[in-house]
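Dock FE2/S2 (inorganic) cluster; give full complex structure.
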Amino acid sequence: METAAASALVRLEQIPLDRGVALEIGRTSVALFRVGDELHALDDMCPHSGGPLSEGPLEDGCVSCPWHGARFELSSGRSVGEFTCRDVRRHNARRVDEHSFEITLAPRTR
Ligand code: FES
């Protein structure tokens, strides 16, 4: 993986199908999740209390925070389920070619 200040190039085969992977882009920790041939990128910091989302279990297109169980949709970052909190920031994952995605940090809104 190559990183620049606000983006990184990621090869799809570096991301397993059954768990997340943490990636530092500049000073931002990003959690990467692979669903088939798609890649999703969220902040690797749960908005509730900072849990590492890259270490959470995946189910039905969502990741659950390993600390207290808040669930987030991978495709939107939206907090879903019974225990909801703020949505998590979602970053842009743009396919570059058959094997690679460029992850670009989304602007902070708060
Ligand atoms: S830190 Fe994620 S649910 Fe509490």
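Observed: Residues 46, 48-51, 65, 67-70 surround FE2/S2 (inorganic) cluster (CB under 6 Å).
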